[in-house]
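Same chain as my last thread, 271 residues:
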Amino acid sequence: MTQQQLDETVEYLIKKGFDKPEIGIVLGTGLGQLADAIENPVVAHYNHIPYFPLATVEFHSGKLIYGEIEDKKVVVMQGRFHLYEGYGFQDITYPIRVMKQLGIGHLLISNAAGAVNLDFSKGDLMLIEDHINLQGGSPLAFKNVAEFGDRFVDMKEPYDVDMREILLETARKEQITLHEGVYASVVGPQLETRAEYRMIKTLGADAVGMSTVPEVIVANHLRLPIVAISVLTDECDPDNLQAIDIQEIIEIAQKAEPKMIQLFKSLIKRL
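reply #2:
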């Protein structure tokens, strides 16, 4: 990754009409409905954007959408990238750097995750308050990282406290179940074994997924306030583990998504 590549990507998007977005949003697996709430949308397909990776997962649609939500200019990633698709950490997080250079001041992330905390149920939402990186690498571990920000990034509070408080307050008011918890990020794409679920729980995680942490690390590198919500799509009880049905996971994500959209729209209005 070079600054020249970033400049070319951003120049292409500005020419497409991506005019000074204020808020960036990343939509996770099965979570595309928020895109329908965008007014006056301008769409750029990933395969047309210079230096952008391509989404290879069938339920990730692969487009960057610019427009308005709650009278704020937003840029939305409909379809994200994962290590399990064969991409490197810099590929996965390239769009975050692009959105920051376009002008965003806040980043909202969603993902689908498995509930390791058995007090949580599938269909619930979890506000991520901290994370555990089990992906075996870092998006900041490259030679010229210092050209883009500090090499050593503080991660004492990776998720923005003020935005988290607004989401919790909204959830209480709207009577939406919003747990707080720790998200563990693994490589995938295989699901975890019973022994791995036990390990993840012992480490202190409440949910497990295959994304988000690289983007959060880069957002912190860019000093970009970030908040993230997991839609819990399955219950990871090692003593009563059910065979996974990816279609069911997508359906649960889609059913729970309107609650997440309600929270995000309320937050966007107040930013």
